Description:
3-stranded antiparallel beta sheet
Amino acid sequence: xxxxxxxxxxxxxxxxxxxxxxxxxxxxxxxxxxxxxxxxxxxxxxxxxxxxxxxxxxxxxxxxxxxxxxxxxxxxxxxxxxxxxxxxxxxxxxxxxxxxxxxxxxxxxxxxxxxxxxxxxxxxxxxxxxxxxxxxxxxxxxxxxxxxxxxxxxxxxxxxxxxxxxxxxxxxxxxxxxxxxxxxxxxxxxxxxxxxxxxxxxxxxxxxxxxxxxxxxxxxxxxxxxxxxxxxxxxxxxxxxxxxxxxxxxxxxxxxxxxxxxxxxxxxxxxxxxxxxxxxxxxxxxxxxxxxxxxxxxxxxxxxxxxxxxxxxxxxxxxxxxxxxxxxxxxxxxxxxxxxxxxxxxxxxxxxxxxxxxxxxxxxxxxxxxxxxxxx
Length: 376
């Protein structure tokens, strides 16, 4: 440390990344400020990184680079969109300004723990994934010696056992939708104001009940490619998804979630009659969709859920979601035809069907004939 005009100069010799030893100095008004400035500069030099990423770079910069890297990783568009949402809404506001060298295990763990307490475990787990990926990229680029997220405790999401509706509850759902779609006339006999309620809500619900399709899959069938009225079949071959551009655009993805195989469903007479009626009355739309939105575009899944909730609320059934219906179908097929059949109807593996969709039996099978010998 040397006294110089205007303050103090901190000096050292440093072997740079190119192997050349250089003299490094920093001058500040006080000894402490000079020492800190020199230390900060050396820290930066110790961790040069590609893409201008250094130990002094903010975490937000590493997150941006990681998300760009994920775009080339052949991820499902919904997965990438969810990563971006969590980064934009939670990670960057909460940790984005923190420098990479300041990303310590205690700091990261406190952030994840707080996010879990305030927002929830699923979002906290995704935030942990985003941070772990970003800090891993920073480590590969040399901005960090190691990824501190490795020592941050994982986030466990408690999964509830699958729940299925009873047959009576399903019938109540359909009855509530029918009543909502055909509201009684006004007492004065005049027509009701406002846009007429869609009559497609029940038809989409019936498709879910006939195929166990996810809501995006149930809204994606096309007349020319997925419906064969003569054979009485409906093929689940794609789903609706959002682009990653801004503003996001809803489009039909020509493969199912996880790139699962197409599933051809043989339909009951009720479903064939419904689709025939819709085909006869179809006005056509540019996407050839069986269930377009009112303007002929793709029907946003979130808008569908809101409409379903509005239809079920008067009957006290607003808690029922399209996914509840999917689980119900899987459970009924399992009880009648076995787990393998349930998995094939859903287009999943038996393990996925068992863990996430089929309601566990609470009534043991009747094995009295087998066990009666113990009491002879």
